[in-house]
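quick one before i forget lol
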Amino acid sequence: MNMAAEEAVAPEHRASAFADLKQRMDLAVKKMQVPPQQILEVVTQLSIMFDTGLNLSAALEVLEKQSGTPHLARFVGNIRHNVEEGKPLSVAMSYHSWAFSPVALALVRAGEMTGDLGNMLGKVAEFMERDISTRKKVKGAMAYPAFMAVLAVGVVIFLLVNVFPKFAVLFEKDPSKLPGPTKFFMALSDFMIEHGAWLAPAALGTFATLFLTLRSQKGREICDPVVLKVPAFGGLIRAVALSRAFHVLGVMLNAGLNVLEALQIASAVSGNNEYRKLWSRSREDVQNGGDLSASLVDNPLVPPAETAMLSLGERSGTLPEVLGKISHHHEKKVESAIKAFVATIEPTMTILMGAVVALIVSSLIMPMFAISQVMK
């Protein structure tokens, strides 16, 4: 590509990155204004009221009036307004795709087509509750390493900015004789003190850029296969991805959707790009007349036992029930994977933090010891 072409493409890339960042920020704000727990409560109450005979518009009006926050009231009010205009509930919910997953929208559509909307809303609530619970468990597992990482960075910054400058006077007579680690940390300390005003914004910008790059399609293509191979953490990601996918497939088939629709939704909600491609390929195989179990045989992303159980379910006509049992099994595996991850990461983070602090402190002690030896 020539220089002119590069100059023409660069603004488009920058505009795309800015639009992506803005979209993610808007999404984060919406989720803070109306958190998933409040949406779950709305769906649960809507299911109960609909089952008791209250019509959809009246039920939404009640929920709008009893909303605890203005944001939630606007959220429910917007859905009610679209329903009263004659739109199906699934369409009204689809305008808030940040709040309702493809699974929820598909279940509501199935309920509208079969006339069993109240029951399907109950299934949506069950799915959302399970999804929220899994996310809380994973976030809880990630809280400790995140805390330790922040603590380690804070300790390092404190030592470099507040401790090293006080010892600099002792070492300035003959800095050439200082050990290598001491010279490095002294230079880093001076750099942080002189340029601290713009280091924080630069670090924040770098982190945001890295985050957006990893979340982009190209970034996921590169990173997601690597993530699955990381000890402990990869096992956790596998367990969550399989548990979610099998649960989605079971719920969709029990709701009356065909295998192709269920696989399409399972692909759409996959948290890892490798699993998204797996379910997309399986859908193509099934569409061409193959079996779901046959498309998963010898695939390292799916354990052989699960493939064998799927094959049995297909032959016996009990695939939805088998998927439910597999999903329940993998839900337990998620809890085991979380425990294994925490058991691995806690000592690892403690050792890393101790090693970094010990290296910094030793870089101060070594020249101090040398000075004391000379004085003797």
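fyi DSSP finds 15 helices and no strands in the chain.
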